[in-house]
Every structure is written in structure tokens, then in C-alpha cells.
Fold each of these.
Amino acid sequence: MSLLTVSNLTKRYPRGGKSIAAVDDVSFHIDPGETLALAGPSGSGKSTIARLVLRLIEPDAGRIEFEDNDFLALSGASLRARRARLQTVFQDPLAAFNPRATVARVLDDPLRIHGIASRSERPRRIAALLERVGLAAELASRAIHEISGGQRQRVAIARAIATKPSLIVLDEAVSALDVSVRGQILHLLLDLQRQERIAYLFISHDLGVVRAVAHRVILLDAGRIAESGDARAVIDAPRSAIGKALLAAAPRLHRTRP
Ligand SMILES: Nc1ncnc2c1ncn2[C@@H]1O[C@H](COP(=O)(O)OP(=O)(O)OP(=O)(O)O)[C@@H](O)[C@H]1O
Ligand SMILES: [Mg+2]
């Protein structure tokens, strides 16, 4: 049984008096514990799909089933409960969090909002989350703007796993990090996936990273699926025009490893 099933998803935006499909009749599924990557040129619809799956925006057409629920039909308490199982890590945690908030505060929020731990239990849970993502417990009292980009992305991952999600949407989550930090964060993600069987919808314009971490990949072109399949098979020998163009633009591909 698949974890997430997206069927015929379409999202249109007005442009110049007309409407263009940012996402055009897209269907895919993700199995438990699997990494599905979305790749494609800028403007091909990757982030729009992420926002639709997270229900930050509503589609014009299509269905999203998540953990056997009609996800688009959920509202109120049932939506909140299901949202705990579907988390996200964005590219820039400095923009996603209040930069003056402490690390403890950022991690306390999901535990409190989703009723996961009592007030007295939460400091211990926060320390355990920090340890889980390879950060010292002392970091809890620091402000978000005082820690490094790599540490911030680890805090964002700690926050995402606080509610025990089955799926995490990662939209260019490692793209802003320098190569060595990126490798460490990718290792952490793979480790979490192995241990907790978390699935990832992994969005990246970097085919080398996609090849290294994803099981399957979908290549998007102007909102439509151009090609999909086993990540290594597709990236090593793309059949679509957009796949060939993306590969040609990634000269250092085979040297990129997490
Ligand atoms: N809120 C919006 N209003 C109007 N058009 C939008 C909006 N959001 C996205 N679009 C358009 O939808 C298309 C897909 O955008 P999207 O952000 O999903 O692309 P992307 O693949 O994530 O690109 P990038 O690699 O640059 O992040 C683009 O043409 C974009 O201009
Ligand atoms: Mg994007």
C-alpha cells in the first residue's frame, strides 16, 4: 500500500490575461520508507507540487491520498492530526523560523501543538531530538540566528521528526549548504530513513545528489512529467529531451557523493 498517492494534480496560475498550468496532470506515488525525487529546470513546477502535497495551496484538480485518507477533504482536527505525519524542511530555515527564537522554542512548538509531550517532559524530549540530529544539548538555549547554516538545517530536521512523520517533503533542503556540510546532512537523512522508515519527497536541481539519495526520480518539464523511473537508470541514461539537457548541464555529476 503506498503512503502517498497523487492523481492528476493540476494547479493553474494567471499570467498575462491567460492561465498557465504550473502543475499539469501529474500523478505519482511514494511507498513507505522510499525517497522519490522531483527534478527539473527552474519553473518546472517542483515547489508547486511540494506546496500542494503540504496543502499550503489547493489544486484546481486532482486527488491526494495520504495514509489512506482523502487528504484534500480533511479539515480541522483531522487535518491537524494528519499533518503531524507529513512534515517539511525548506531550503532556508532562517526564513522559516523566527531568527530570534531559541532552538528550544523551535523544537518545543511541535511537541506542544501536537500534544506529544507534557510541559515537564519536553526539555528531555528536546535534548533527545538534538542528540538524534547530531547536535549538543547545550545548543537548546542558543538563538536560531546565532547558529551555523548546517546546525540550523539539523534543527529544522529535528523539528520535522518531532511529530514522528511518515513523509518529509524536502524542497532544496541541502542546496544552500557547502559541499561538506551537505554531505553530512544527506547522511543524517539517510540514517533517519533507515532507522525510522521515513519517506522523502526530495526536491533538488542537483542530479548528482538525486542520484546518490533517491530510489526513484520524476523529471518535470513545464509542469508535466517528462520521464520517471529508477533514479540511477534515469540519470545515467535519460530518454527525454529535458533529461538529456539536465545531464549535459551537470558535468561533475559522477563526482558528487553525499
Ligand atoms: N504564487 C504564484 N503565482 C503565480 N505563478 C506562480 C506562483 N507560484 C509559482 N508560479 C509559477 O509556476 C511555475 C512553477 O513554479 P515552481 O516554483 O513550482 O517551480 P520550481 O520547479 O520549484 O522552480 P525552481 O527550481 O526555480 O525552484 C513557474 O512558472 C512559476 O512562475
Ligand atoms: Mg522551487
Note: The radius of gyration is 18 Å.
Amino acid sequence: MSKNLDTDVVVAGTGGAGLAAADAAASNGLKVIAIEKLPQIGGNTKISSGFFAIDTKEQRAEGLKLTTEEAIRQLNEYNHYLNNGPLTRRIVEHAKETLEEVESLGMEIKLNPTANTTQFAHRDNPYAGGSYHMYQNKDQGYQNIQKSLEAKGVEFLFNTTMTDLITENGEVKGLVAQDENNETVMINAKAVVVTTGGFGANKEKIKEVMHTDRMRSLGVPSMGEGLFSMEKAGGVVIDPHALIHAAQLAKSKVTQKTSSKHLAGFSDNPLTRVLLTPLMWVDPNGRRFTNEDTVYDTVLWANAGYNVGGMYYILVDTKTLNAFTDGKEMEVSKAGPGANTTPGNFVELVNQSIAEETAFKGNTLEELAQNAGFNLAELKASVDRYNQAVDSKDDTEFAKSAKSLMFKVEEGPFYAIKAQVAFLGTVGGVRVDDHLHVLDKDFKPIKGLYTGGANAGGYYEGQSYPAYEGLASGFSWTSGHLAGLSIVEDLK
Ligand SMILES: Cc1cc2nc3c(=O)[nH]c(=O)nc-3n(C[C@H](O)[C@H](O)[C@H](O)COP(=O)(O)OP(=O)(O)OC[C@H]3O[C@@H](n4cnc5c(N)ncnc54)[C@H](O)[C@@H]3O)c2cc1C
């Protein structure tokens, strides 16, 4: 059995990008059907904390005066000019109006005016936090948005997964989907917006683009059907990658809700204090690999961990764990997940991790190397160099600060606790122009095809986390808004 539907615009995926596109099209009198794989709207955008925009009324009230030109310059430089210049400019210019539109749909948004966000990323950029407009009461906000869009005539089809595009002579004429009863739904449309949010849950594809399968995925189960359908229809996939972000204890039990202190998707165990302290870190071969002070910045920390494949080990001895039990630890980072600050017996906590095979123990370094699979010579040499650095307060290997050179690794039993870089879905996708038309290999728009958010390429470069707080979430709404307006313009 298959169903056939006709509409002006069909939107696949109802995260920020899809919702904003549906809103812009419906607000201008077009008939819109929005399909969604899950039983609810929001996608990863609903999990995200805030929206990048500049020159908003709240920023002006705080005296924050990042100009459009300065924001664009910083974004271009952060991306080494590998980003799409006109697209970047239009997003920065239209973020404020999009934010106001999202507010008008019923989402409460409040500026975080400081660099202290839940993420502690890009610590030296005063605007990293000050451009972060935080969503409030998200559950209520998304319910309001759905109601507002329905009132504008948008028809939502939930539990409906896009599987392909309908094409004819190089033009896109609609899409094919499957509903919850596995029935095929054909939706014929004048314009298709594919905003299915990348492919964060597609393990194989993540492995292909990131060259490792050791990282931890957070986010909704997007497999990439939308992105790959656009590629099949002639789109060019240019820059997809996992949005790497901090690290967590391997196999940690995760919280589902973001609070002011704690990000959704991260562990809430006192051992997070060991994770979030610049102790000695080694790679899967037992070799030290970075300046552990990177733990104080969500982005640099994830990057350093990704560099050794996304999984590394925190090396401690019993004396160090006892110091944690006694509350005599180093400054705990507020980056990424944030730490649980309740007291605990850290030897016992690590022993629980050993039982779960997320930590290893050895009475000697030889035994630890054997249990954790380290190369003994690398491990011993690294430990020797590290202990010398702690003694001399001079890390000649990676220039860690003297204040963080506090705990030697010298008295067994020794422990190696696994940490895993996390990623928040993917970003980057098919090449687009600044009106969110999907371009073919000759840089010409594919008629009828539009995208935005995590499926759109050109806004990000490289695998590092974007330059400002809220950039991905803000891009999602703003690019979707612009895609919807392009459709209105093109269908005139
Ligand atoms: C835990 C977490 C925290 C984050 N925090 C931030 C933050 O604070 N700031 C920031 O800038 N970014 C953050 N991000 C990243 C940001 O949320 C995303 O990059 C952005 O929201 C993507 O928006 P989108 O509209 O493209 O996709 P999404 O919001 O993910 O929406 C895509 C929708 O498409 C649906 N879908 C998938 N496949 C199909 C299909 N085949 N057919 C139909 N529907 C489909 C999905 O179910 C989903 O509802 C975070 C991400 C996560 C996971």
C-alpha cells in the first residue's frame, strides 16, 4: 500500500532548520507538510542549549557590541577561509531576525551575557558566551512552536522517515517516506527541504569520516537518509563531520536533561572530578600525548582526545585517588559535562569502573600495561618523564602549567581510567549557496531542492567545535528560515 500526497513544500526533519523553513513558507501562504522520523518535533536542536546571534536587543542592553563585520571576520579566520563566505555573511546578518521569529512562535530565549556557559568552550573569546541566547522551558517552547505552525497550516506527519527524493530530469519533485506501518508515502511538492540533521547515529559513516569508532555519540538517531538522498540527486557532500565536544567516562550512565549546571548526555558520577582534572593522560599505547590543561576548555579537550582516536586513559596511583577522597584535588574544570561535586571514596569508585571494564588496575606498571594493553616501554618512559616534570614543575614535553603538575604516578596499585570523546551529532553536508539551494557539481542549484542545519555544508571547517557558543543551533534555525524564504521567492 502506498499513500500519495500533494503540497507546495515538503520539509523532512523537524529540528530547528526544518521548523524554521516550514514557518517561513507557511507564513507566506504556501501549503507545507513536515515529516518527522520521531514522534515529536525538535531533533538535536531541542537538546541544544542556545542560539548564536549578534546585535540583539539583549546584547545591546548588556553593552555587547560585536559587529557583523567582526563576527564574520572571526568566523572566517577560525575556519581558515575554507567556509562559504556569502553563506556565513547571510547567516550572521539574519540570525537576529530569525531569533525574534522563533520567540514569536512561542520559545522563550534569554541571553547568557558572560563567557561562563554550560560548555566552557573558547574561553578567551568574550563573545563566545555573550552570543549565546539560551532556550528556556524547552518542552513548553516546542509545544508552543508546534501549535503556532499548525495554526499557520503546517501539517505534521510523525513517525515518518524520508528514504529518498523523487527526481525527474534533474529536478526534485518530492520525496518518498515510510510511515510507522512501513507503508510508503509519496509526497509530490514544488519544493523539498531536507533538514534531517546529519548522520550522528550512523556508526559506519561516522567511522568513515572521523577515522575512528571509539567516540561516544549523543543526540537523536539520525542515520543520514536525507543527506545521502541529496547526494544521489546530484548534491555534493563537502564537509561532514562529527561535532566533537568534551569527553566522558566510558560507558557512563548519562543524564537526559540539561540543567544550569549539567549538560544532557553526560555522566553524573563523582569520578567526573578525575575526568575533569588535569591528571596524567595516556593514549591506548600507554604514551602521554598532550597538555592535560586542555581539560579546561571543552573544545581543546575534545580535540586533544580525538587526536589519539577519541579514547584515552587517565593514569593515577592510589595516593592520588586518596587525595581526591580527602578533597585535596586540583581545580576541577567546568568544561563539557561539568563535574559531580559530591564526596566519594575514589578507590571504591574506580574499583566499580574496573568491574564494568572501563578502568584497569595493576599493582605494578608491568601489570597495568598487561591489563590495559599498553606498551610497557612507552608507559614507563612516559611515567618517568611525567614524574620528573612534577618534581621540577617544568613539563618539557607538552608545556603543562606548573600548577597542574601536582600528582606523580609513583605508588601502586596504579589505575588507568578510560575516557571517551563525545560528539553531538554531525555538522556539514551538501554544498549550498547563500540562499540554501543545494548545488550540483557545477555549482548550479538543483531545482526544487533546499536544505539547512546539519545537512548543509560550508559553514564549518575541520573537525573542531564551531567558533562560538550556539553557532550550530543558531545556524540550524537561521539557515532553515532562509531556505523557507528562498522557496517563497523562487515559487513567486
Ligand atoms: C546534546 C547536544 C547538545 C548540543 N548543544 C548545542 C549547543 O548548545 N549549541 C549549538 O550550537 N549546538 C548544539 N548542538 C548541535 C545542534 O543541536 C545541531 O547541530 C543542530 O540542532 C542541528 O539542527 P538540525 O535542524 O539540522 O537537525 P536536528 O535538530 O537534529 O533535526 C533533525 C530532525 O530530523 C529528523 N530525522 C532524521 N532523519 C530523518 C528522516 N530520514 N526522515 C524524517 N526525519 C528525520 C530527526 O529525528 C530530527 O528531529 C548540540 C547537539 C547535541 C546532540
Note: The first strand starts at residue 2 and ends at 12.
